[in-house]
Amino acid sequence: MADQPLIYARGLVKRFGEFTAVNGIDLDVAPGEAFGFLGPNGAGKSSTMRMIGCVSTPTAGELRILGMDAVHDGPRIRARLGVCPQLDNLDPDLTVRENLVTYARYFGLSRAESRRRADELLEFVQLGDRAGGKVEPLSGGMKRRLTIARAMVNDPDLVLLDEPTTGLDPQARHLLWERLFRLKQRGTTLVLTTHYMDEAEQLCDRLVVMDGGRIVAEGSPRSLIETYSTAEVVELRFPGMPEVGPRYAAALEGVGKRVDPLPDRVLVYVDDGDAALAEIQRRGLEPTSVLVRRSTLEDVFLHLTGRTLVD
Amino acid sequence: MAVTHGVHPTIAVLERHLTLYRRLWQASVFSSFLLPVLFLLSIGIGVGSYVGRVQGVDYLSWIVPGVLASTAFQIAVGESTFSVLGDFKWVRAYHAMRATPVGPMDMVRGHLLYLVFRVTIAVVAFLVVVVFFGGLHSPWALVTPLVCALLTVSVAAPVTAFAATIDHDSYFSLVFRLVALPSTLFAGVFFPVEQLTPVFRPLAYASPLWHAVELCRAATLGAAPAWPVPAHAAYLLVWAAAGLFLAVRAFRRRLED
């Protein structure tokens, strides 16, 4: 059973009354993988994470975590998980170190072991000098690092991170990514949700895009870009936007694989940016600004889940 | 995997409360330790000098067990309201525990064990003070901490269940005004319930506090309580068991989804 997936889901459904949050998804996450759930708000990412964390019971379908049944073996599974929730739930009146020691005791660790793990993890997340201080004055990034340290306190086989860097400034995000990358290098299986494309590209070996409770695409960041987008994107601005957008979009038809008129610019999805520019010039179109860039997951995401604002 | 099974999850939850108490104990010194003594001085001695003897004993000795049980009652109610709701709503400590092997039963039991600890130190401290006032008349006074512990569970468990069910702290004023305050005033703490109009007496009998006051009074005075001891104890146990059941159910429901 060496190759048994850490997470195995078939036809997983979660309903809240009339509302279907997760509508029949299949998942296989292998040991050592960094796996991501991407999707707009309300896509069903967090509901799926809560079922994987064995704190929410699936309405239907099969869910096995670490080879055990998620419904019946909840406590045994949770003993081997590390969870970093979307909303911080640290104890504000305890010190940084007490937060870790207290949490370690929930897993049945001895007092000495709890203290040893706490000190080791505080070093790992670079909070060693704050160990005796209160949680409340910590910055958002520090709190999140502490929550991640807390999730590691039982040396988990699987770490679940629900939007780990939402609301953090760029420095804090990069430090966090670097720490998570180290965990990944150590062989820890990471499962995360995010709506930051750069985060998904940085951290995930493989990801699924969710929309409306379903999985609409699956693959590595690169393969998703290859499948759902083109190698390059040409961004053009024309005088008189947005009114003239549709007219230019029509004039650009055939230059690339797809044309996407936005209010402020027109995107042309192409395999070769330079060739596309030559063609645009040949057609006598005169954009006020031109940008050729590589396709990103963001293009895939917006293509798959649409541009309409969800909330 | 570093997981060893050294400590029971219930004890781990108790430890969290004790760690917090070590940080925040100053906040409750007045209500837990000084207030009961002030009651003893102002009502026991001050009012007592006008009252004289009640049911054959001096008034101070008569209200000592009442103040004792009502101190336990106040701590049990007070510590099961905002702090329980807060650990769901603001701190989300119970959500943090839910992600670990700790279950709803452990959360409730850990909380109740903590309150038993809080009540025990408060009533023992009060008993020590009372000894110097000559307020204890029987070695049975030694069992009063046990009675107070039972009262704590029988009151804290249902209040905890209530706190885990509601979504807004304004509901607590109902508990304080309609349950806690009338109980303290009319459940035999300061005067015998026989003084109440017969219509209102059943309300005193319904309150767990009255049963604990009767048991404590019997113990400190070395006299028989109003009802047989097993009847008083059984009544408190029923409240404790029902409250525990309701609290665990409320925790489970709140933490699911």
Automatic annotation (TrEMBL), chain A:
This is Lipooligosaccharide transport system ATP-binding protein. Belongs to the ABC transporter superfamily. InterPro entries: AAA+_ATPase, ABC_transporter-like_ATP-bd, ABC_transporter-like_CS, ABC_transporter_ATP-binding, P-loop_NTPase. PANTHER family: ABC TRANSPORTER ATP-BINDING PROTEIN (PTHR42711), ABC TRANSPORTER ATP-BINDING PROTEIN NATA (PTHR42711:SF5). The keyword Cell membrane applies. GO terms for biological process: response to antibiotic. GO terms for molecular function: ATP binding; ATP hydrolysis activity. The keyword Kinase does not apply. Pfam families: ABC_tran. It is found in: Cell membrane. GO terms for cellular component: plasma membrane. Residues 7-237 form the ABC transporter domain. It is a peripheral membrane protein. Keywords: Antibiotic resistance, ATP-binding, Cell membrane, Membrane, Nucleotide-binding, Translocase, Transport. It comes from Microbispora rosea.
From TrEMBL, chain B:
The keyword Transmembrane helix applies. InterPro entries: ABC2_TM, ABC2_TM_bact-type, ABC_2_transport, Nod_factor_ABC_transporter. It is a multi-pass membrane protein. It is found in: Cell membrane; Membrane. It comes from Microbispora rosea. GO terms for biological process: response to antibiotic. Keywords: Antibiotic resistance, Cell membrane, Membrane, Transmembrane, Transmembrane helix, Transport. Belongs to the ABC-2 integral membrane protein family. The keyword Transmembrane helix applies. The chain crosses the membrane at residues 24-51, 71-91, 112-134, 140-162, 174-193, 233-251. This is Transport permease protein. One of its GO terms (cellular component) is ATP-binding cassette (ABC) transporter complex. It holds the Pfam family ABC2_membrane.
